[in-house]
Amino acid sequence: MAAAACWLFIIVVGSLGVACAGKAYLLDGDANYARVAYGGDMESATAVAKRHCAPFERVPRFREFQEDAAYFDCIRR
Known about the structure:
The chain is α+β, with helices and mostly antiparallel strands. The protein has helices at 2-19, 42-53, and strands spanning 25-29, 33-37, 58-66, 69-76. The chain is 39% helix and 35% strand. It has a 4-stranded antiparallel beta sheet with strand order 1-2-4-3, with helices on one face. It is elongated.
């Protein structure tokens, strides 16, 4: 019984790590740049930057990483 409970605990704790692998989201920005919280998936960070830059009729261009954020310049098409 104790072994089964131990395995269940390991599975639950391991699953939490996968579930908490953060999604990319916009931290701040304007017509010239977007700062996106970066959870390890560059495609999702780029998609967030595209949605941010689009209303300004601009497209994102990756600039740099700083800690857990990706910076994109919003450039004219």
